[in-house]
Amino acid sequence: MYHIAIRFYEELNDFLPRDQRKRDIDFTFGGRRSVKDLIESFGVPHVEVDLILVNGESVDFSCIVADGDRISVYPVFESLEIETVNRLRPSPLRDTRFVLDVHLRKLARRLRLLGFDIDYADGRDDDELADIAERENRILLSRDRQLLMRRKVSRGIIIRNTDPDEQIVEVLERLDLWERIEPFSRCIDCNGPIVSLPATSEHFHEVRERIPPGVLEWCTEYFECARCGKIYWKGSHYDKLMRIVGSIMERKS
After folding, report:
1. Residue 105 falls within a domain, yes or no?
2. What order do you get walking across the sheet with 194-196 strand by strand?
3. 10 Å Cβ neighbour count for 133?
4. Is-contact 193 121, C-beta < 8 A?
5. Which domain holds residue 131?
6. CB count, 10 Å around CB of 63?
């Protein structure tokens, strides 16, 4: 039997029952176990962990737990005044390309509205989501704890809120993305880049029949999705989306 002490810090406590939060947990188990398996046995997905100290020394997920070990587990972006440790992600989650599970459709659209690279489609199962996250090195956003415990998923975040308005702020805050917001730079429908469509260009004359005649009478500035070809202009829908962007930006702490 192995007898160890383990403690989880800051938001990692959200995954624990109340009697185990913010305290040393004396734990006994049988059989050889990696520190990754130990951490996830408490219901904490490995993608939420940025630093592990075993007896004061930083280790990776493959470290085998020994009898008597004292283990400290820190979340992604936890600020520590320790210069000698090696974080599990030296440049944690800075490549902000995401894939979202099927339950986060509204969050996907809000993130695209703010200009983030979002891979989302209805009907995907967990295997497909995990494969995309691994193959394209995307950050997987999900409310499914078990999905984020899959070994092939190395970058991901549990979305704690159920309200899409709170979810978008949660992602922006946790990953410190406020300065990376570029509203209306991606197509909300397909994620393609939005480019200018000059009304004097030859291409505009090729696609102008797709624009309502009433819009052509007053609008002189157009944009187009480089992927799906959807045409955008600053009409009443744009004003509505601007209000959504403004309400999000007001939440910046």
Report:
1. yes
2. 194-196, 222-225, 231-233
3. 27
4. no
5. 97-180
6. 17
Burial of 143 (0-12, 13-18, 19+ CB in 10 A): middle
Q: Say if 250 falls within a structural domain.
A: no
Predicted TM-score of the model (pTM)? 0.81
CATH number, residue 143:
3.40.50
pLDDT of residue 94: 53
Residue 96's pLDDT is what?
82
Residue 170 tokens, joined: 């949660």
CATH number at residue 8: 3.10.20.30
- Closest C-alpha among 16, 97, 8 to residue 49: 8
- What pLDDT score does 82 carry? 45
The tokens 């193959």 sit on which residue?
Answer: 135
Residue 116 sits in the same domain as residue 174 = yes
**Per-residue confidence (pLDDT) for residue 85, from 0 to 100:** 55
| Predicted local confidence at residue 116, as pLDDT | 96
Residue ranges of the chain with per-residue pLDDT less than 50: 78-83, 90, 92-93
